[in-house]
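Record Ribosome-recycling factor, 188 aa.
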Amino acid sequence: MADEDLDIDIDDLERRMEGAIGSLRTEFASLRTGRASASMLEPVMVDAYGSPTPINQVGTVNVPESRMVTINVWDKSLVSKVEKAIRESGLGINPQLNGTIIMLPIPELNEERRRELTKVAAQYAEHARVAVRNVRRDGMDQIKKAKTAGMSEDDVKLWEGEVQELTDRYITAVDKLLETKQGEIMQV
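=>
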């Protein structure tokens, strides 16, 4: 059997772990700490027409002032779904309806709200860790298949070590991003 048939695609595993980090960065960008930002709504999905849809695909998101975000929903039938998605998003914003326009006043961050946001950030980081571990599991499954196909024990140990090292590196990156974001949130 050719040796290259037994190789494990570390580049693919790394690319997928990098995707988890990228997703985490996007979610962290949604946790703006003082000023209103359209990007804070990026992770919020609306159940529109039977599938999860980003808010910016069902309406126009604007930031008319530093403490206000508005969403002009294009389809009147989706206004209540957009409002519900925002309420359930964990952003801690109370939407106010004005026809097809949803106004999101951004509350002043008090100590309690900062702590809530750090918990949300920790949840986002845990989701990223789980995603990285799932990629690790896929890599270990590839190694097991290669072992049954005739990979030597030494090669199995080498690949397992490489996958574990990659996983550890990305878990550490998630932890550092979380620490940085929690520092930003708690900064007054």
